[in-house]
Amino acid sequence: MGLPGPRLRHHPRDRAPAPRRVARARLVSGFAEYQPGVARQTVDVQVRPGELRDLDACAELIVSRTHGSAAERRERLVADLADPDKYISVAVVGDEVVGYGGVIRHELKPDDPPTTAPTGYYLIGLIVSPDWRRHGIGELLMRDRIRWTAERADAVYSFVNQANGAILDLNKRFRFTEVTRDFIFPGAPLKPGTCVLLRADLTDQ
């Protein structure tokens, strides 16, 4: 069964027209307001592996959600770029990076608590610039990261805040199913009961 795909035109060599200005989404619990009935707008967008030149913009996108230092975040992204077990996916309109998503490999250690998330590849940090939401960019970043992971593993994991309805729905469209809500992930400050661990089988991808 094939993955769903947004109806977008892809002309990476063309300069994209100026975006149609849309109102910034009201934030709910730190996430964009979930509006499943809002129609997508067509835009020319390229999704590709991240490069060194993209990392300043990626860092700014990330700290717009997590706060902290963009310079420190960029240093971490530089290390990620060189790590074969990590992947950076970017969405570009014209010369502007408008979306970011990552993949990391987590390895369960013998002394980890029993509720620690299992070994595997994890989708992390899907972020789209507020001015470019409702264009299906998140779905394209999702597809690209799953493509990369499917070349290396039979399954992929994700953990999502239960308040983030848009990302939960996106994961369901890519056939992610719930594993548990009682888990921890090393290095991630997850509040108990706020996130759900999801898994998607990639053997048919």
From TrEMBL:
<keyword id="KW-0808">Transferase</keyword>
<feature type="domain" description="N-acetyltransferase">
    <location>
        <begin position="45"/>
        <end position="203"/>
    </location>
</feature>
<dbReference type="InterPro" id="IPR016181">
    <property type="entry name" value="Acyl_CoA_acyltransferase"/>
</dbReference>
<feature type="region of interest" description="Disordered">
    <location>
        <begin position="1"/>
        <end position="20"/>
    </location>
</feature>
<dbReference type="GO" id="GO:0016747">
    <property type="term" value="F:acyltransferase activity, transferring groups other than amino-acyl groups"/>
</dbReference>
<dbReference type="Pfam" id="PF00583">
    <property type="entry name" value="Acetyltransf_1"/>
</dbReference>
<dbReference type="InterPro" id="IPR000182">
    <property type="entry name" value="GNAT_dom"/>
</dbReference>
<protein>
    <submittedName>
        <fullName>GNAT family N-acetyltransferase</fullName>
    </submittedName>
</protein>
